[in-house]
Write a structure and sequence with these properties.
Blueprint lengths: L2 H10 L4 E6 L5 H7 L12 E6 L5 E5 L12 E5 L2 H11 L5 E4 L15 H8 L4 E4 L1 H9 L3 H31 L5 H15 L1 E2 L5 E4 L23 E10 L7 E8 L6 H27 L5 H14 L13 E2 L25 E5 L2 E3 L4 E3 L2 E5 L4 E3 L8 E2 L2
Parallel strand pairs: 1-5, 3-4, 5-6, 10-17
Antiparallel strand pairs: 1-2, 2-3, 7-9, 8-9, 9-10, 11-12, 12-15, 13-14, 15-16
Helix pairs in contact: 6-7, 8-9
């Protein structure tokens, strides 16, 4: 664990300590930070590990698993019975006033809310204030290294090639009159993923017309729709390189299987595009000016544009999510809708900007990825400006 870096982060945020806690793998953030997820050790009892802003870390661990925290610095006190657990926790927190835990008020950020209510109660009953570790987690789980950024850029370039090949396949079949359906396009895209050296946790979303109105629709072998002429076609694809530490890229593009895009589709797409651009501009300007920016503000920038265009009730998800070694990372989300994400956007992190507008008849979404550096923010791939015609 990067103890010195954690202690500096605690001082920066005015916190006394970070209390990591886990029971039976209930807190994957804690197990990753301590290295227990890769240790192969049996962990069937509660353990606690306190990193104070000043002084040596210390732990509390069950007697039958007393060696589980041996790889970490500091004294570890064993306990067995419940009375020893209670007194051990009291001693562990002695002198601590405010502690960060994987807790989110009202479960606003489920990605962070990993500690059960009873454990939080037990800490508070000792007179210790519990605050969210959300921003701390970002610093140690969401910041990309230079190699990670390079892997993201490489994955992004390959995703765009797969997207282009998929649109090309549809264009070719429309020209020859050979039937084509969503599932066939999806499966070809997976073949191209393999050719490009990409891995993913799920197949791409390929959605035609009314299915594009379902943000998470995916075709299957049994549930597939033909792709006809003069229809909206949505492609949402995400993947990363097959290498340790690689991070995901995630994009969405919209096509139309005709020669001229109808005005109703163009108008809706323009609203989503303009909302996306407003969010991108806010992030870019804040990074350039060194201004602190929080996730909910970015969502609000996109949502205000879409609301003003008259489609606010059809924008039914957050504007963006953190990207990391998992496609939904543990960094800040661009969200003032599903949650009110007050976490800061910090340098070294990446995320999506992906407003969408949906109805029973069709849907559109435009998705780009951003990376925030020390003094600038970048969109890491091409941005779609108009619906792509495929006829």
């Amino acid at each position: 664990m990067p103890i010195l870096e954690i202690q500096q982060a605690l001082k920066d945020d005015g916190l006394d300590a970070w209390l990591l806690y886990d029971f039976h793998g209930s807190n994957p953030i804690a197990t990753r930070l301590t290295g227990l997820d890769a240790s192969g050790k049996l962990a069937t009892r509660r353990w606690y590990y306190l990193v104070p802003a000043e002084g040596a870390p210390r732990g509390l661990v069950h007697a039958i698993e007393r060696h589980n925290l041996d790889s970490l610095p500091g004294e570890k006190r064993p306990y067995a019975g419940r009375e020893e657990l209670a007194s051990g926790l009291r001693d562990l927190l002695r002198g601590v006033t405010t502690v960060a835990m994987e807790y989110s008020p009202r479960n606003a950020i489920p990605y962070i809310s990993r500690v059960d209510a009873g454990t939080v109660e037990a800490v508070r009953e000792l007179g210790v204030e519990v605050v969210s570790s959300g921003d701390l987690v970002q610093r140690f789980e969401a910041i990309w290294t230079s190699d990670a950024l390079a892997s993201h850029r490489a994955a992004s370039e390959r995703l765009y090639r797969v997207k282009d090949r998929a649109f090309g396949l549809v264009r070719e079949r429309l020209g020859t009159g050979v039937p084509l359906d969503e599932y066939h396009v999806q499966q070809r895209m997976l073949e191209w993923f393999a050719e490009e050296g990409l891995t993913t946790d799920d197949a791409p979303c390929v959605s035609a017309q009314e299915n594009a109105g379902n943000p998470h629709y995916q075709p299957t072998e049994r549930r597939r729709r033909p792709i006809g002429r003069d229809e909206i076609l949505l492609l949402d694809l995400w993947g990363k390189l097959q290498a340790p530490g690689a991070v995901f890229a995630d994009i969405t593009w919209i096509g139309f299987t005709g020669r001229v895009v109808p005005e109703q589709y163009s108008r809706v797409f323009a609203a989503a595009r303009d909302g996306r651009n407003a969010a991108v501009e806010l992030v870019t300007t804040a990074a350039r000016d060194g201004r602190e920016l929080r996730g909910f503000e970015v969502d609000r920038a996109a949502r205000d544009v879409i609301d003003a265009a008259g489609y606010g009730d059809r924008f039914i998800h957050r504007t963006g999510h953190s990207l990391g070694e998992s496609v939904h990372g543990n960094g800040v989300h661009m969200d003032d809708y599903e949650t009110h994400d007050e976490r800061r956007i910090i340098p070294g992190t990446g995320f999506t900007i992906e407003p969408g507008i949906y109805s029973a008849d069709f849907g559109v979404r435009t998705e780009v990825n951003m990376f925030v550096g020390d003094h600038e923010a970048l969109v890491t791939g091409p941005m779609q400006h108009d619906i792509v015609t495929l006829a």
